[in-house]
Structure formats: structure tokens, C-alpha cells
Write a structure and sequence with these properties.
80 residues, alpha+beta, 3 strands, flat
Length: 80
């Protein structure tokens, strides 16, 4: 009986929706290098609208990394 109640409670908890925000990660420098001749391009965007004031803001950013050697990268970051 105890296992049945525990299983039912666990099943209910697993089916309850959890609130989560899907957002892009913070821009941080990776510890890995791309390697000679490899490229990485990241494009991130964020749109925020405040309910109380009705104001909004848009943030765009782009990062391009190019591997210039086995242990070196050149990084260009363009925030807006």
C-alpha cells in the first residue's frame, strides 16, 4: 500500500508542469580552441517587453571565432 501511494505521488509530481525560461546562454569564452582553419559563428537575440509600462527592448549580438593555429583563435564580437 505504501509503495502504491508513493508511486502515485511521484507520478503526479512528474506530470506537473514546471515553469522554466528558454533563453540563450551567457556569452562566455570557451576553454576549447577551434583548431586551425575552423570557424564558429554565434547569433543571439533577446526581446523583452515590460507588462507594467509597455516598454520593450531588443538585444542582438554576434560572435565569430576563427582558428588561426592549433592553440590560438581570433574572436570578433559585435553587440547591439
Amino acid at each position: 500500500m505504501r509503495n502504491t501511494i508513493t508511486g502515485c505521488i511521484l507520478g503526479i509530481l512528474l506530470l506537473l508542469p514546471a515553469s522554466a525560461w528558454a533563453v540563450h546562454p551567457f556569452q562566455v569564452e570557451d576553454t576549447d580552441v577551434q583548431g586551425k582553419g575552423n570557424f564558429l559563428f554565434e547569433l543571439n537575440g533577446d526581446y523583452t517587453k515590460l507588462k507594467n509600462t509597455g516598454s520593450s527592448s531588443t538585444d542582438l549580438s554576434g560572435v565569430m571565432r576563427a582558428g588561426t593555429g592549433d592553440n590560438t583563435d581570433v574572436i570578433v564580437e559585435v553587440p547591439y
